[in-house]
Amino acid sequence: MKLLEVKGLKKYFPLTKGFFKKVVGYVRAVDDVSFDIKQGETLALVGESGCGKTTTAKSILRAIDPTDGDVILHLDGKDVNIAKLSRDELKPYRRYMQMIFQNPYTSLNPRMKVKEIVGEPLLVNGIAKGKELEDRVAELLKAVGLRPEYMIRYPHAFSGGQRQRIVIARAIALRPKLVVCDEPTSALDVSIRAQILNLLMDLQEEFALTYLFITHDLSVVEHISDRVAVMYLGKIVELSSTEEIFENPKHPYTETLLRSVPKPDPDLREELVPIEGEVPNPANPPSGCYFHPRCPYAKSICKEEYPEFRNLGTEDNPHYVACHFAESLKLRGVKITL
Amino acid sequence: MEKVLEIRDLRVYFDLTEGTVKAVDGVSFDIRRGEILGLVGESGCGKSVTAQSILRILPKSARIVNGEIVFHRNGKTLDLTRLDPEGEEIRDIRGKDISMIFQEPMASFSPVYTVGAQMVEAILLHENISKEEARKRVVEMLKKVKIPNAEKVVDMYPFELSGGMLQRCMIAMAMSLNPTLLLADEPTTALDVTIQAQILYLMKELQKEYHSSILLITHDMGVVAQMADRVAVMYLGNIVETAEVFELFKNPLHPYTQALLRSIPKIGIRKTRLETIKGMVPDPYNLPTGCRFHNRCEKFMKGLCDVKEPPEVEVKPGHKVKCFLYGGEKE
């Protein structure tokens, strides 16, 4: 059952020039992105900085208004097009979608106690107040592995990992359907990272959460996600199940990402062979396939035409890819063992 | 093997209003000629402070309480801890014999001078050559770090360059005087994976060509595995384990190293739950007694680990570990 359908989502930021702010062009941060997320699954959105991952997430949550496209949320048999609602109409649906931010040092108000931070969503939605509110906050803190006594403290008294737990408690306070996790472990130390990932997986089971998991770290993706969408310069270039993406990548960019991750095993040293070039300017993307200037397999057609995003997998296990040579290329993946 | 730098029982304390933080507390290691030594640990473990002590660029609130940092230079030895941090001698060493690459390339260059001007300045500080010659050398170095259009980039300001390009410039600047030792403090942490791979590859190529030694500071076990010849693992101001890189990854001995290696998600091995290290890094003002890892350790021995600090034991040639599991309790 689908929870969320994103269709042709676009977010263009105007580039202005001069005193009168004349629009001279657009940064196509998100350019015609479509995907869906099933109830209870985790979809990872992977890509390098500036590829539009976060803008996609923010457009879905209507933290920013998308330029075009549909974001359809299926709620108990009711379909709501989040992208097309007015600010007022949107209000009752906000509680179903929450976000966990990257940096727990900047996403908590330093002047509010934990009780107020975690309790605020419950209070403003009129769900609980007074003693009941306190009980609910205590429950939430327990669910994320913090002692309820901590609720009278301020954020500065907590470490990065604990702060991220507070952020998570706030996000699940309203029992949302969809939680957008925007690089939730990137700012944390390695020994804490595993704790937070485990917590997110536990909470998903307990509260039947659906995650849109944004990250640049492929080793994290593999553990937490059911399906993976790879983004490059505002477009999704490959989308399939985690096993397919890792073991059988069909887009050269996905192959590059997989090979670029430094593996914690000195026996795999020869793997680290970099590709040339950097991510191009999204205000002025290359012609044809956006990846062609860096692609080791590029031919002349890649400079001229943007490849179609098509399904090369089966009906049950679709494998979408946007590459002219996806059928013929033999790309190296990473074997997954359990 | 010939040693370039020897650090003996280094202790660096910070006097802050809340108390004294023992950021580096009894650290000893050597760096050999032409090797890459990886220094790994989590934030706050004292990796960067160790590097800053070598160049004597510690913040004002820090003081070197004990220890020596012996640098081998032109056949002579020199204890860097005895130098005046603002004196002639250390300034002569900085940038020439020992240079450094920082984590944030955007924050490490001055925004008001061109990249070239800053690189020329570094060369002119140490060598008696003309500005034109220095500039020529800078362009050459920029080509060496594979910057396209080096002649143009030399006159660009930092804001005109991407993070990856600036990091290349910083490497070019650090290598332009052919240093004996390069300190690289999280050189790729701020970069994207594909750019990180490029920079790591470049550092390795240059290191082979110049035969410099590198102290590579990182929190990323993957980077260490790919780059280092030897590895030192740090936890709360102590080095808990040192070994050759293949040995360390195949046969980690210290419970902290073992837990760290188990807790990182690895590509290709899918688990439903990741193993974790229990608890969190303790408060730096209030360090645990005895072994500093004892309150998070799975092999904690009551009455020993929380009372005495374990000595460093050489288990195999070149593999040292600071843990009572491998002896040392009788002393």
UniProtKB/TrEMBL annotation, chain A:
Claim: Cytoplasm is one of the keywords in the record: no
Alphabetized Pfam families for the sequence: ABC_tran (PF00005), oligo_HPY (PF08352)
Highest taxon listed in the record's lineage: Bacteria
CDD domains membership: ABC_NikE_OppD_transporters (cd03257)
GO biological process, one term: peptide transport
Residue stretches making up the ABC transporter domain: 4-258
Keywords: ATP-binding, Nucleotide-binding, Transport
GO molecular function terms noted in the UniProt entry: ATP binding; ATP hydrolysis activity; transmembrane transporter activity
InterPro entries membership: AAA+_ATPase (IPR003593), ABC_transp_ATP-bind (IPR050319), ABC_transporter-like_ATP-bd (IPR003439), ABC_transporter-like_CS (IPR017871), Oligopep_ABC_C (IPR013563), P-loop_NTPase (IPR027417)
A cellular component term, taken from the record's GO annotations: plasma membrane
Family membership: Belongs to the ABC transporter superfamily.
Name of the featured protein: Oligopeptide ABC transporter, ATP-binding protein
Organism of this sequence: Thermotoga maritima (strain ATCC 43589 / DSM 3109 / JCM 10099 / NBRC 100826 / MSB8)
